[in-house]
Amino acid sequence: MAIITPSRFRIALVWAFLVGSALPVAAQSVGLPTPRLLTITPMGGRIGTTFDVVISGEYLDQVEGLLFSDARIQAQPKRNPAGTPIENHFQITIAPDCPVGLYEARVMTRLGVSSSRIFPVGTLAEVSPTKPNHALETAFPLPLNSVCNAAVAARMIDYYTFTAKKGQRLIVDCATRGIDSKLKATVIIADAAGRDILVERRGGVLDFTVPNDGNYVIKVHEATYKGGNAYYYRLGLWEQAAKTPIVRQPSVSPVNSFSWPPAGLPAQAALTEVEPNNGGDSVQKITLPCDIAGRFFPAADVDVYEFSAKKGEIWWIEAASERLDLPTDPAILVQRVIPGQNGKPATYADVLELSDIPSPVKVSSNGYAYDGPPYNAGSSDVLGKLEIKEDGIYRLQISDLFGGTRSVPDHVYRLVIRRAAPDFAVVGWALHMELRNGDRNALSKPIALRGGATKALEVVAIRRDGFNGPITLKMEGLPPGVTAQGLTIPAGQSRGLMLISAKTDAPRGYANVRFTGQAEIDGKTVTHPCRVASMSWPIPDAWGEFPSPRLIADVPVSVSGIEQAPLTVTAQKPVFEARVGEKLAIPLTIRRTSEFSGAAIKMKTVGAGFERNPVFDLPLKADSTTVTLDLNALKVAPGEYHVAFLGGGVVKYSHQPDMVAQAEKTSKKMLAEVKSLEAVVKQVSADVQAAPPMKKDETKKRLETVTKKMKAATTELTAAQKELEQAKAAAKPRDIADIMVCEPFTIRVLPVEKK
Amino acid sequence: MFTHRTRSPWRWTRLLGLLAVAGLLTVSPAQAAERPVSFTNDVVPIFTKVGCNLGSCHAKANGGRNGFELSLLGFEPREDYEHIILEARGRRVMFENPDKSLLLLKGSGQISHGGGTRIPLNSENYATIRDWIRQGARMDGPQLAHLVDLEVTPTHGTLARRATQQLQAIARYSDGTRRDVTKLALFESNDAAMAEVSSGGLVKILELPGRVAVMVRFQGRVAVFNAAVPLGAAVTTLPPARNFVDEAVFSNLKELGIPPAPVCDDATFLRRVTLDIAGRLPTLAETDAFLADTSSDKRDRWIDNLLQSPDYADFFANKWAAVLKNRRDTAGDLDSNFAFYAWIRDSLLANKPYDQFVRELLGATGTVEDNPPVAWYKRVKDPKTQIEDIAQLFLGVRMQCAQCHHHPFERWSQDDYYAFAAFFSQVGRKPSGKQNEDLIFHKRGLATATNIKTQAALTPAALGDPMAPITPGEDPRLKLADWMGSPKNPFFAKALVNRYWKHFFQRGLIEPEDDIRDSNPPSNPELLAALEKQFITSGFDLKALVRVITRSNAYQLSSVPNAENLGDHQNYSRYYPRRLQAEMLLDAIDHLAGTRTDFANLPPGTRAIALPDNSYNRSSTFLRVFGRPEAQSVCECERVQTSSLAQSLHLLNAGDLRAKLAHPTGRAAQLAKDTRPLDARVRELYRIAFAREPRPDELKTALAYLTEPLTTATGQKIPEPQALRENLQDLLWALMTTKEFLFNH
Questions:
Q1: What residue segments make up the domains of chain A, in order of their start?
Q2: DSSP readout, B671-698?
Q3: CA distance A602 to B488
Q4: Burial class (CB in 10 A: 0-12, 13-18, 19+), A285
Q5: Among A380, A571, A716, B249, whose Cα sits 20 to 30 Å from the Cα of A393?
């Protein structure tokens, strides 16, 4: 039996779109080029200052501006003395009224808006090492109350020194994952000789009380000594008054935090846990409903609450801890207290056990292949229903399944026991195809639309307290030429889609949009924002590193205005009507701007009521086709439906082919100039030979001048030729697999006509 | 060994039928008068004594030998009886003519028998089995008196070298009877170099002084004879006792009449203790400062300094990472291996109490990233391996045998094994986001494990200690950790102090260090008990333990033997030299040669002693040749400390060592450029290599060699600077290959 190594696996990429419909296609990469802003150096800034940054990323062609999610941060292109903007250099100004926190930074490029990079804003002085500091001898002196922006290099340790006084309380807080960095930091405080004193490797803070006056050392390295620009950090060092709480550098929110808190929950809980409450005789008595703040501390802590309840009562129990970005796994057990008879002790009967909140959709497994969304909307927190079957005293115990040996006072929880308050929370992310390889590159994608493109966001809902109704999805405030159609999350289900389409002639544009989910609950219209999640980094090999997803603060939508989608499929009219049980023909117009592999794409139907329509072939050589929907077979009830088709195709993508002609033109121009200068040089050389002695020097000088000119032109020609080669290489068609989505349309199903 | 069967009622019906036909269920009056031979108490012990039921013979797993199967060491007499009576078409016993029984014909070698003659014709054993057959080859009834205890007499004694002592084994039965079973018992010395014991229980003491034990086994019971063998020399001077370690060691030496070596000099101490605590040689500056220091407490202060250094954490993390199986099998193990290693190392650096360290490991939950000891559960997945590793590593108890049968040398039964396994029965696993890494959590439920033999569901019990009931919500592993960390635990502290004692003295007070059992007594029980007590009282403080050991004069004795104590290898009358471990030796060579070894993906300058896992062995012939373990085993014996031809050849002419000696910025090159007088340079070299000044003869030889002119193969004189550099390389190589350099002494 042949052994398939990961690399062979990658080459022989076989992918399938959504469930079923495997389409064996050989391709090199996944996802059409997307602009991605990957680093900003320095990584953040101080309130009320102006400073320069340099950016880097992928497909950052024709960058027009550096944009922030808050208008109080502004960027201007950095210019050279001649006034020409320097590529990828900007000057940033943070207004004095800009609050401390994290902001999204993006650039507008040829292909539209880039993916986001977190940009922290703080109050401490900002510093950066001025030269390599990879040894104790070259340690960078770090002032107290400053934050240092740097990146670790592979196989290197960064060294810093600071001076402190005995008894001073100092905090060393290294922001990494929380600001989108790939760095899993090891941070060490050592003595002046570099001998380790305190070590932190799990993202915690170092709280250091200085033992003696003198110099100390901070070392920073990656857990496995990886490094590079993506492994950046902001190392904060500040004085902290004794016995005051530490406020750490801000951190991005995990994906599953979208479902916390429930609407209307006060910022502070009404009750606080009071120890001892570990069970037995030590319980904390409460009355329902209640809202308690507690801690899983010390190790193996169990908190037991006792309450009375009557038969027939229904209570909803929700606990949050993991969703507060803590590495915990809360579990709840409710028991009924059976009083002991004749002096015997009471016994306890299990009534309910609650553990994880399952993801509403199947999450990708951790195998090499991608077999579902890599975003987990579920949580190890708790959400469930308690039905009281008989009057009595009940005990609820909460513990951390991961807390058996960990004594961390910061591992807190919030426990809410309430009467049913039906509600929902929604989160979305760019739809990705199921892949039988490890490429997670395309998971990091902004909503940057090519002309004629439709992009799909997968949206899932966490339903609360028995809410079961449909949830409609909306997007408002789109740029001109862009429309968005939500495919409703049907009643009782958890998954819907948001399809965003740009007209083929949509102008170049950008807007921060309002993305919401809406439902009727108890006769009222309830609207919640739909948070959007994204991956911080494109990951070409899922086994090499684990992609880190997070929630992003806003929802920007942009249109390239320059590049067109390789395929635009449009229903020939926006609304179709048919009666129940009829067959409905949907004529489609197919527009291509690229070549494709294969003759057809397997398309699947999306939109409630039509998902079971069989997969069909969308021809790639024709300009139109007709799809017939059998309303009888699909058993579609009367009503209005939003439907679209989507499938995976392999585009022969050519990147910026127009750049080739441009580069060719420049190259030819330079070649002509060089040739003409060669002729001049030849002529002047001859003149030098022929010149009379009195004019010799003058002619020689002329020769020097033209020779210099020719050399400069030759250098320019070489550069132009190199640019041409690069443009040609980029424009050379290569196979890229991506999702092709048809523009959504409406089907109105009418009742059968009464005869 | 792995015979898991249930008794078939059909077989018993058939057996009863057979016996009835033969008229053997009735007993004649003559037979009744004679003492009945018991299958369990008389016949089976013969099989054990003569070796029929060894794992290599008829107790071989899956069918025994040549179609005849017996239970291992006779632990299942009923099954043995069935095999004898029912199988081989009944030919194994011939009731009418017992001498024609296949059992006797084969056992006595009268017909071909692969195992040779085991029960000679006319022997007492032969007669017993023949009588048993003649009496009807009966199985014992439920009223049979069963063995309750085994005694050996004498239990202990002081024996001169070359003396002999006959032991007597007495079995005590449930009906109060006592019986001399010396002829049927098995005898084994725990140190073959000190004492031999015959099959009949005659102990013969050899030349070496010390303490030796003879284990006596009979039908699953064990008794021990302890002998003290004095050397008998006059112990006139003893170094002063600095702590209880010295008191116990010196009092033992006095009792045995073994005069100890004197306390070693400063240079030897500095080099020894730096290697033993920090896994490295002292630097030149450290050596110079230490030798120049005239204060009386400088040794104690140096020990404290070493214990505070991260080098201590690196060195001991290296030791623990191997036995905790921090092994890299695939590239995907990188993150978890680094995290696990770092957790061990940081725990040692912070001097986390040992009971807490073990608790965090045993009770680990969550992901490797958030809680690195979870990595142990990634590496050791099988719950049986988990308990076997835990028992051997942290309790010094080898439970493996008891999985399938009663432990032959120990009191552990299968029930003990599975009741111990029950602690790990509620370890829940969920897939994490990472390939091959599970989330570990406590799965709510009543912890039980099933004894595969009896099918009984057993609740957790710790090596015979009954536990309070563990509720479904409690993680039994934490209860196990509570039990381990209890000051009354008879195994936990003992196992650790013995392991650490061995680290510093090369030989455990109990050997092997992780095989602690009644039948393997310590060579100095008072010392072991005192160390155990100190460790518990200190709150399981590992640094305090190291401090107490290394501060003792016992640890600081010279390794040079005197006229009397050369033969002593277990009473610590001198320091026992040992070859540097692979990683230490590589670092020491780099230290001497002024070079460094680069390891993939680690910062330049990372020392071999600080390597996080075994993966670096693949690229380093040196580490492999000198025995760096692959973290496959929970036993420290996986590290090969023996010498080999490959090691000698490597030191003689391996390319990597030659490159180090000739390195353009290495020690030889530096010293060649040095402008100080040559003797200063040589003296420095000696201080770097040995932490001491050269003796006059050494200095003279070295200077003579360094100033020797060199010529090429064609007879041309090599310029002086180059000749000096080459001569320095030779000198370095000569120092590097001395025993003084290769050994800690």
A1: 36-122, 133-239, 266-359+378-420, 425-654+737-750, 659-732
A2: HHH--S-HHHHHHHHHHHHHSSPPPHHH
A3: 71
A4: exposed
A5: A380
CB A638 within 8 A of CB A751: yes
CA dist A261 and B640 (Å) reads 58
What whole-number distance in Å separates Cα of residue A97 and Cα of residue A649? 49
Interface test with A, best of B280, B349, B368, B607 (most A CBs within 10 A): B349
Phi, psi for A400 (deg, rounded to 5): -105, 115
Strand order in the sheet with A50-58: A36-41, A50-58, A85-94, A73-79
Whether residues A156 and B603 touch (CB distance < 8 A) is answered with yes
Quick one: CA dihedral B477, B481, B484, B486, positive or negative?
negative
- Chosen from A177, A224, A355 to mutate, greatest number of chain B CBs within 10 A: A224
- CB contact A256 to B (< 8 Å): no
Query: What letter does residue B604 receive in the DSSP assignment?
Result: T
Q: What is the pLDDT of residues A723-745, one digit of tens each?
A: 999 999 999 999 998 999 999 99
Domains A36-122 and A425-654+737-750 belong to one CATH topology? yes
A403 lies within 8 A of chain B by CB:
yes
CB contact under 8 A, A366 and B332: no
When the candidates are 2.120.10.10, 3.40.50.10190, 3.30.565.10, 2.60.120.380, the CATH number that belongs to A266-359+378-420 is 2.60.120.380
Q: Are residues B156 and B130 in the same domain?
A: no
Domain identity same for B590 and B700: yes
E-strand ranges in B354-458 read: 427-431, 438-442, 449-450, 457-458
Which tens digits make up the pLDDT trace of B130-182?
Answer: 999 999 989 998 889 999 999 999 999 999 999 999 999 999 999 999 999 99
With an 8 Å Cβ cutoff, are B313 and A196 in contact?
A: yes
The DSSP bridge pattern shows strands A330-338 and A347-354 to be antiparallel
Inter-chain CB proximity B601 and A546 less than 8 Å: no
Residue B20 is assigned to a structural domain of this protein = yes
pLDDT band of residue A16 (cuts 50, 70, 90) is very low
**Closest C-alpha to B477, from B456, B464, B490, B462:** B462
Enter the DSSP assignment of A214.
E
Q: How far, in Å, CA of A28 to CA of A26, rounded?
A: 7
Q: What is the pTM of this model?
A: 0.90
Please give the C-alpha separations between residue A409 and each of A39, A297, A560, in angstroms, as whole numbers: 34, 6, 49
Across the interface, of A195, A225, A401, the residue whose CB is closest to B442 is A401
Smallest Cβ–Cβ distance between B371 and the set A156, A223, A402 belongs to: A402
Q: How many helices (H) and strands (E) does chain A have?
A: 4, 54
Instruction: Select the residue of A186, A366, A406 nearest B433 (Cβ to Cβ).
Output: A366
Identify the CA nearest to B602 among candidates B314, B282, B344. B314
ipTM passes above 0.95: no
Residue ranges of A 336-395 with Cβ closer than 8 A to chain B: 353, 365-368
Asked if A201's CB is within 8 angstroms of B603's CB, the reply is no
Identify the closest residue of chain B to A154 by CA–CA distance. B601
